[in-house]
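ok here's the first one, seq then struct tokens
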Amino acid sequence: MTKITELSKTRELVSDGAWGTFLQQKGLQPGECPELWNLTHRQEVMDIARSYIDAGSDMIETNSFGGSRYKLEKFGLADQGYRLNKAAAEISREAAGTEKLVLGSIGPTGKMLLLEEVTPEELYDAFREQAMALEAGGADAIVIETMTDLDEAVLAVKAARENTSLEIICTMTFDRLVTGEYRTMMGISPAEMIQPLKEAGATILGANCGNGMSGMVDIVAEIRRADPDVPVLVHANAGMPVYKDGHTHFPESPEETASFVKALSAAGANIIGGCCGTTPEHIRRIREAMQDN
């Protein structure tokens, strides 16, 4: 299959939307392990993957965001990491068929290198195990996402690059400061992430979570000013979360989300999808807006 980097040079691509909030709608309870659903609720996970394909996604992720041994150990599943990640990729592979792409999702471990909660070698090994399992399950690329610590992100990229044959995507999560600038929780700007992550082996960079589409326009523009050529992926929330009546709501409608596609494209985005709160309808509207662009 043609690599994502090559496809992104010929046309804009549509990614998928939220998984975590979708799993909750399917019945995932607080304190449950989402990745365990790959074994216990396979059809529900398959339904999510297929819904995004039906909505027009060119690529879908896997239900493996928290699939590192460090996240899984909280559920007593640290020794099941390979099996759960492989199953996640197999489900998305079946849903995607041979025409669409599968991105193996890897999220942060929750361990802090700065506080010496884990060594670089231990982190590398955990990411290696996860990436290899996702490749074995049929992923076309690895997407390392929602990173705030550049050192952890670099280790994840290296582990995936050195132990699989897959393309590596890396997105970080940025917050808007009162000054109008964007930084991760660890103080990294969009421009500052580019060179270290490319040197580690990432071929597509971007941002996810933390912002609605409007904030992503500025982030993409900063990345593009610093690097005119690297393909840029955006997975934006459906607006900034609002806590109301005991629940977290994401206020941005599919129409509102899609209204930013033109500005994102102009800023330099190559791949556009959604994160928390986005639904198949958000993705369908993004696809329509992209076709009209």
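and now the second one, same deal
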Amino acid sequence: MAQFFSVHPDNPQPRLIKQAVEIIARGGVVAYPTDSAYALACRLENKDGLERIVRIRDMDRDHNFTLVCPDLSVLATYARVDNTVFRSLKAHTPGPFTFILPATREVPKRLMHPKRRTIGLRVPSNPIAQALLAELGEPLMSCSLVLPGESGPETDPWNIRELLQHAVDLVIDGGFCGLEPSTVVDFTGVEPVLLRQGLGDASAIVGGPGSAEALL
């Protein structure tokens, strides 16, 4: 049975954040709020957690996972970017954007797109997500909480608790997050390409949409 923590959306209680991170550190899978909608996450090295998320989402093996990071300080460890791309990322983080980037050898193969060797990276502005990352001291492996048969992500923590109480270890109630997922921008080509229009305004990054192949 999943635990359920009601965390203040603007001033997360340190005691609850610490307990949540202890669950994650022990191998737990958590449903947590972001600045767009709710997401699923576990530790980067948690292979079993990844498999559990894959089963919950009923995802295929071509699906990109996202590294959710507190800032861009870890960027060089996991992705290869030039100065132009870095400036664009810096101008749009933190916020409701997921960036598809060429992965470095530091990224476990199970997290990369198997054909393109890419990784998704996100820096959220949500205070609860930021508090979790600060306490954990490392990125989270994450993806949007879109359940099989649904067209959009889950936004109601009480509904998430009912649906996933036997599938996750913790549901963090951070209030209603909104109906839109993150905006996904692919930076692996010559020019950035919009893969999914979500909450973030990508008009300053890209000129038009590309193929919607990523649902992170």
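notes on #2: The first strand starts at residue 3 and ends at 6. The chain has one domain: 3-196.
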